[in-house]
Amino acid sequence: MTDAVLARRAPEGPIRKPGVRAVRPRDAATLLIVRRDGPKPQVLMGKRHGGHSFMPNAWVFPGGRVDRADFRAPHATDLDPDTAALFTAHGKGPRGRALGLAAIRETFEEAGLLLARPSEPRPAAGPWREFVGQGALPDLAALQIIARAITPPMVAKRFDTWFLMADAERLISLDRQPDCGELEEIAWVDFEEALGLNLPTITRMVVKEAALRLDEPNRPRPFARFRRGENFTTEYL
Predict the structure, then answer these.
(1) CB contact at 8 A, 213 and 146
(2) 98 is in which domain, residue-wise?
(3) How many structural domains comprise the chain?
(4) pLDDT tens digit sequence for 186-210
């Protein structure tokens, strides 16, 4: 099991100004892509630019907030029924599909990798034009939920983030486009190497959780949120 309470430390990100009400967390999703074609499983990670106000120079998984176009994006497969049911059980309902699509889209935009199935190129709205225009439709069935975390209320930028995992075999190709968006560096690292990087608190928790899930796929999924005092408390989905 993940530790019941994460270690106390300074919040990561810009602090909310005194007297300003806490902002509502925005829906977001991030994607852990795991390779199993080497001596050790590896996960895709990227380094954020040092100029960002939110987690500068930290190593993270590709991801970001849900875009309006994610609710209308075409897809080759739908969410696995168990994954869809878990989203619904936690009040997301149709937003669960948009969360999955956001994770896939952001991975394409930030790391140049397509979690998709080949298709005929077709028109698509907004940020999906390039993805779908290259002849690929998102493979939602490849996604598994492994964790969820909500940014604490004292931080000015807050996200309700769902951490999803997929096997690299479901990518169109391991070759990526050279433009990696806001991620300065992209690397495949094994889980021990990942823990040696500059990781945000929640990312470190999820790295450990993902490594354990490779051997225990039915483990409870941690849900980290700010509940008491100055600590994140980990419950389970």
Answers:
(1) yes
(2) 26-236
(3) 1
(4) 899 999 999 999 998 889 999 999 9
